[in-house]
Amino acid sequence: xxxxxxxxxxxxxxxxxxxxxxxxxxxxxxxxxxxxxxxxxxxxxxxxxxxxxxxxxxxxxxxxxxxxxxxxxxxxxxxxxxxxxxxxxxxxxxxxxxxxxxxxxxxxxxxxxxxxxxxxxxxxxxxxxxxxxxxxxxxxxxxxxxxxxxxxxxxxxxxxxxxxxxxxxxxxxxxxxxxxxxxxxxxxxxxxxxxxxxxxxxxxxxxxxxxxxxxxxxxxxxxxxxxxxxxxxxxxxxxxxxxxxxxxxxxxxxxxxxxxxxxxxxxxxxxxxxxxxxxxxxxxxxxxxxxxxxxxxxxxxxxxxxxx
Length: 308
Hints:
The chain is mainly alpha-helical. The chain has helices spanning 2-53, 59-94, 116-126, 128-150, 190-256, 262-296; strands at 154-161, 175-182.
């Protein structure tokens, strides 16, 4: 049991570390995205000022650009605070108060996922709580056998060798052997009740183990489906990202010609940043969920081999 609990603690630590690492990585990348938005809005404001001076756009367009810059600055500062909090949480996990480290491992997708049934089988075989219940089942089996042994009669064998006797002159050194059998018929059904109690305990433990196996299979399927969902989002968002980048290019070009409004450019920039953040979050969710799946499958040590 001690070894099982130690293994469980190690695997939980890997999952916690993965979760906090990728949250910090997401926050770090979000700061970069917010910085890009802020830089883009400042360029847009500069372009709007030039167009207003040339009489191509109205002053209201410049005002909208200024509002967009202010909002981008607010979002950027908020992202930096989120990063600081995420780094603090990660530092607590790795016990490094300096927080002076680089998040060098990128987000990743696992391309060789095993079938769902394999992860369910590994979870049933390796999950610590199920292992404990299996051990308890073996102990209750031993208890039942011990109680049944007490139910058998007590047998005693005695022997006596006569070295000399005037009464048995024809037998040289005779040996007398006796067998005694005792059985308590009136024990108030104590032994029978003890056997029933042991069998009832075995049944309770078995039911608990079977329920734990069902629950862990459901949890495995939940994490597995979440991984598939995140992967589908990532693939879908790659196309959306390309379209969002093209939209920004078209809107900026149209604005320079006085065809599109300042709001059109701002909306396109915000749509692009939103798509980037959604993609990053899908990656972070995927990597953290994969760590949880590996934990309950009892293979957390294999998780690090997927990290670049």
